[in-house]
Amino acid sequence: MFTDMDTSKTLSTTFKEAKKSPLEMTTQVLSSGFWSLSQNYTFNIPKVLETRISDYSKFYSEKYQGRKLTWLLNHSWGELYFRAASRKFLFTVTTAQMVVLLKFNDVDVLTRPQLQRELDIPAEVLNSVLASLVKADLLKLPSRTTFSSALPGDTSFALNQKFISKKVKMDLSKLQMAARSEVEVKKEQSEMERDLEKDREFVIQATIVRVMKMRKRVQHTSLITEVLAGFPPLQAEGRDGEEMRRHPHRERLPEARRRLQGLLRVHLLKRLQEMLK
Fold first, then answer.
1. Are residues 187 and 163 in the same domain?
2. Considering the domain boundaries, does residue 243 fall inside one?
3. How many domains is the chain partitioned into structurally?
4. What is the rounded CA–CA span in Å between residue 172 and residue 178?
5. What is the DSSP string of 142-157?
6. d(Cα 207, Cα 213) in Å, to the nearest integer?
7. Partner of 173 at 20 to 30 A CA spacing, among 99, 114, 204, 221?
8. pLDDT of residue 209
């Protein structure tokens, strides 16, 4: 691992001397067998950056024949200068934030579909980038609009030409990480709720089968009541809590009925009327 770091430093210095450019680029070439890094996503990059990457790849292949470089854009970052209100700011940004901001060099207003189409960037990554730039006040939404992933597709994002900050240097990369964490947390919560829903349905179904094995025949209402009696009552506060105390299993009633209908459909249970035909 330490050898990779030393080699990367030497390679970067040699490349800068061999291929001079106003765009300064520092690379870290890491052996895939020792570093648990992966290319989670890619996106289109500006021509000037693409050319610099191509030059480095050619430079590297001439030194190490047979080796292949995989560029991890999701782990890279850079620095951008931004001028607003007669002041010059220096932003530390992720590469995803960089490519989005550079799109506003040509136009002042863009929509999310336009950015996604031109950059070919995953929707969840673009959402975290836009959320971070809106939070930093670099991008503006229409009045009385707050950012969310459910915003209409034609919602416009405008570059804030009147951006003001007491800080001349700002690290915006942390804002994207925070925004991405919120998106991932919500996604995990949604997946967890779906898993819990499935588990709960399986438990209700197993309880129905267990009751039927013991009783053989039972009235529909009695079966539902007996099945729900085996579950702890749901808790609630206030006015809803009083109603729930009178009917503690009301919220689970639709689930029990759905599971019962499911067992009837797969012929694990039969209605008495069908058996008498």
1. no
2. no
3. 3
4. 10
5. PTT----TTS-TT-EE
6. 10
7. 114
8. 76
H or E element in which residue 89 lies: strand 87-94
Task: Give the residue from 34, 52, 75 where a domain finishes.
Answer: 75
CA pair distance 7, 236, nearest whole angstrom: 62
Give the domain CATH number at 15: 4.10.1030
What pLDDT shows up at residue 238?
A: 45
Q: Does residue 236 lie within any of the structural domains?
A: no
- Please tell me which residue, 257 or 158, carries the higher pLDDT value: 158
| Cα 73 from Cα 76, distance rounded (Å) | 5
Are 155 and 208 in the same domain? no
Helical H segments across 1-63, by residue range: 2-18, 47-63
Which of 15-24, 123-132, 147-156, 216-225 ranks highest by mean pLDDT?
123-132
Is pLDDT above 90 for 274? no
Integer Cα distance of 206 and 259 in angstroms: 9
Q: How high is the pLDDT of residue 217?
A: 74
11 and 27 share a domain?
yes
234 CB-side CA count, 13 A: 13
Are 49 and 64 part of one and the same domain?
Answer: yes
Residue 151, both tokens: 């915003």
Given this model, what pLDDT does residue 91 score?
95
pLDDT bin (cut points 50, 70, 90) of residue 236 is: very low
112-119 vs 123-135: helix axis angle to the nearest 10?
A: 130
Structure tokens at 4: 């990779």
